């Protein structure tokens, strides 16, 4: 396009009915192959996501955490799911294949042994590109929301006498900024008598979270290294799950139990 039209051109697309662009003699064959390929890719992607989410929760290793945001990694996992020999092991941790072998022995349905139709590997590669993008977006778009929600919940339990609006200001303007190495500002709405003690307690609460994140979490850095946030997100999830385990049917709380949210996208057929 660039060679024929140059840089200054505008592309237009137009939808054409399937029956108008395919010869009648090939319509049934092509439609069957399209449906079969979509079915096979969907089954493979679902199994790949199930296994990777399981692996991340069991072994949150740095090498794997980098891999889940790359298309080549997902294509390798899909090859394993499809009972084929992987062609690229660049992002695989040392114990990855051993864990996969144990997983498929425990869950035989994790394997999808159906042979793909000719040319379907290109569709699978494109699906893996979408997978890597969706996992990146899941981190970049929801990291701030998840962290601030956790901070508000913890602070409300730590300081039950402070108004919720003040707690929200502390979480957003001070705690979040401190954790992601921004510019923390202590809100002027805090009018407690022991303000210095409160501030010190909150700072001591935030510093371990900042050390666990260990990056300046901007949109640019999150997009470049989304794997850096997963250890912190796993910690937040573990703390919230512990609250649920410690609760009893007759537990009287000022606040309801925290919401549980998945660190990575949940596997489903509508990927």
Low-pLDDT stretches are none
Q: Determine the number of helices (DSSP H or I, runs of at least 4 residues).
A: 11
Helix content: 55-70%
Tell me the number of strands.
Answer: 0
Largest sheet: none
In whole angstroms, the N-to-C terminal distance is: 32 Å
Strand residue percentage: under 5%
* Overall pLDDT: 87
Structural class, by secondary structure, is: mainly alpha
Structural shape: elongated
Radius of gyration: 24 Å
Map the helices and strands.
Layout: H1 2-5, H2 18-21, H3 24-58, H4 62-67, H5 71-81, H6 96-106, H7 120-158, H8 164-179, H9 195-213, H10 219-224, H11 230-246
Helix pairs in contact: 3-5, 3-7, 5-7, 7-8, 7-11, 8-9
Question: Can you give a write-up of this model?
Answer:
62% of the residues lie in helices and 0% in strands. With 271 residues, it is mainly alpha-helical. Helix 7 (120-158) crosses helix 8 (164-179).
List keywords for this structure.
mainly alpha, 62% helix, 0% strand
Short description:
Helices cover 62% and strands 0% of the residues.
């Amino acid at each position: 396009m660039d060679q024929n039209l140059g840089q200054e051109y505008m592309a237009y697309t137009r939808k054409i009915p399937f029956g108008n662009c395919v010869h009648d003699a090939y319509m049934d064959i092509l439609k069957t192959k399209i449906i079969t390929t979509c079915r096979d890719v969907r089954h493979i992607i679902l199994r790949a996501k199930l296994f990777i989410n399981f692996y991340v929760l069991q072994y949150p290793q740095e090498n794997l955490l980098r891999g889940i945001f790359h298309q080549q990694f997902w294509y390798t996992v899909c090859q394993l799911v499809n009972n084929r020999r992987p062609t690229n092991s660049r992002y695989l941790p040392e114990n990855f294949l051993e864990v996969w072998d144990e997983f498929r022995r425990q869950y035989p349905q994790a394997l999808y042994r159906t042979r793909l139709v000719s040319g379907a590997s290109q569709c699978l590669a494109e699906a893996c590109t979408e997978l890597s993008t969706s996992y990146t977006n899941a981190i970049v778009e929801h990291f701030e929301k998840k962290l601030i929600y956790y901070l508000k919940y913890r602070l409300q339990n730590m300081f039950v006498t402070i108004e919720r609006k003040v707690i929200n200001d502390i979480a957003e303007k001070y705690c979040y900024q401190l954790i992601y190495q921004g510019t923390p500002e202590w809100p002027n709405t805090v009018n407690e008598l022991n303000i210095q003690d409160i501030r010190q307690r909150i700072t001591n609460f935030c510093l371990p979270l900042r050390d666990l994140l260990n990056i300046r979490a901007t949109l640019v850095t999150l997009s470049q290294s989304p794997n850096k946030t997963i250890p912190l997100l796993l910690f937040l999830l573990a703390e919230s799950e512990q609250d649920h385990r410690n609760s009893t049917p007759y537990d009287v709380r000022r606040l309801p139990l925290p919401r549980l949210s998945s660190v990575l996208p949940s596997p489903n057929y509508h990927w």
